[in-house]
Structures are given as C-alpha cells and as structure tokens.
Amino acid sequence: MTEPPLHTALRELAVDASRHPFLVALDFDGVLAPLQDDPAASRVLPEGVVALARLADAGVRLALVSGRDLTTLAQLAEVPVGTVLVGSHGAERARVLPFGLDRAVAPLTSEQADLLAQASAQLSGVSRGRNGVWVEAKAAAAVVHTRLAQRDVAEAALAQARDVGRRLGVHVLEGKNVVELSVLDADKGRALVALRSELGVRAALYAGDDLTDENALATLGAGDIGIKVGPGGTVAGYRVADPQALVAALGLLAEALEAADGTPVRD
Fold first, then answer.
1. Do 124 and 137 reside in the same domain of the chain?
2. Same domain, 100 and 55
3. At 26, is the secondary structure helix, strand, or coil?
4. What percentage of the chain reaches a pLDDT higher than 70?
5. Who's near 3: CB < 8 A, 6+ residues apart?
6. Beta bridge partners of residue 77, listed in sequence order
7. What is the spatial distance between Cα 237 and Cα 224, in angstroms, rounded to a whole number?
8. How far is 190 from 236, CA to CA, in rounded Å?
9. CATH label of the domain that carries residue 243
10. Is residue 237 situated within a structural domain?
11. How does pLDDT run across 98-142, given as a tens digit for each residue?
12. In total, how many domains does the chain have?
C-alpha cells in the first residue's frame, strides 16, 4: 500500500533533522485541542501531550502560535519546558521554563492604550443584548466571539465589530466566529518568520485550522511542511481531518526521529 504523501514528508523531515534542527509550530484550538463551545474547556489531547514530549526529547524546537492571550494559553497548554508560546497572534511571547514563563510583551503607548479602551467599550456595546455574543479582553486587543450565537445574530455582531475597527483605525483580524481589534500590527505569519530567524532553523512544520493561520502557512517554502487541520481553503500543502489526525502525524514524526537516531521508540 502506498504511504500517504504527508507521512513520506514527515519521514524525510526526520532524516534531514540529523543535520539541521527544525521547528514544529502549532496553533492550539482546533489543532492540538478540539474546539469547544466553552473556550476554557480546551485541552491538548492526551496523545498530543505525549507526542510533544517525544519531539522535545528528540531535539525539535517547539512553539504554539495562538490567537489566545498569553496568560490563558500558558494555563491551558501542557507543553514541554523550552516551548515558545506566541499569544495574541504574535503580540505576546514567552518561553516555558521549569518554574514559570520568560515573558516578552510589547508595551503599549498611551495612544494605543486609549484606542484599546475605546475598542473594548464599543465592542461591549456590540455584544450587549445579543445572546451567545461575548467580548474577550487581551493585552493589546479586544475580541468579539459569536460561536454560541444564532447565525443571524452572529453575522450582525461581526459586521458591527468590523465597522468599529474601521472607524477606530485599528487592525482587524478575522477568524472562525471571531473579529479581533488589535492596536498592534501583529499576525501569525510575521511571528513565525521572526521565530525561525531567532532559533536559526532551516526547516519548519506549521499546522493550523483557522483563517489567521493562513498568514503563517503562506510563509513556508521548500523543505517546510504546512498542514491544514479540518475543512476550508488553504495554501498548505497537506491536510488532515481533525486534531486527532494531526496528533497522530506528530506521533509518526516522533517515531521517525527516534528511529533515525537509534532512540528506543516509546509505546
């Protein structure tokens, strides 16, 4: 039976890793953790926790690149020491240390802080009286969520949120059932490029499920692996059905790395 193209690409990446370190960067929700109606209930699949530990043991550089704020991402993500956490689409950064986080958060100017306060106040008005619509506060952004709203209610709320962003002149980021208004010009693509440069890696694997992940996937080139998780248009070269399939692919990569360097394969 012919091996799936993604499996072949993962095995080739593992062989090349003996000469060049590489980066595995992943979105969190919908990629490592199945999507939940209650965002606070999101957790990395148990098999994903094991796969990430195996990849770290094999010397792979690891990163989570999420729209979540850094504090929440750190609370929910069960990742190995040394993993880089990129929150708020790149506006916040931290490295996981044995006893906490080494944070790097971009400070806001007084003008940006004022814009953020205005955005938060106006988005609160957008959510008011609309069932299933709520506003999340981040260090440099305010976000309207509509996952739990009826379709017509959600569409009206998202359209109004976009209008708020245009009036204020802030950066508008759109994802699945969300519109984010950010006072910092950050996106996952620039975050991934900066991270690769900082770590000095030649190759990268990136997996994401959302519209905001396309910015990161678009930065990948020859020798890289881009994976779209779930349905929807994408520039990624590969696709898997769901987080369970993505985690299985990470396990296959870990197994190939262990076989390449002679490390006993974990059960």
1. yes
2. yes
3. strand
4. 96
5. none
6. none
7. 9
8. 17
9. 3.40.50.1000
10. yes
11. 888 887 666 788 999 999 999 999 999 999 999 999 999 888 889
12. 2
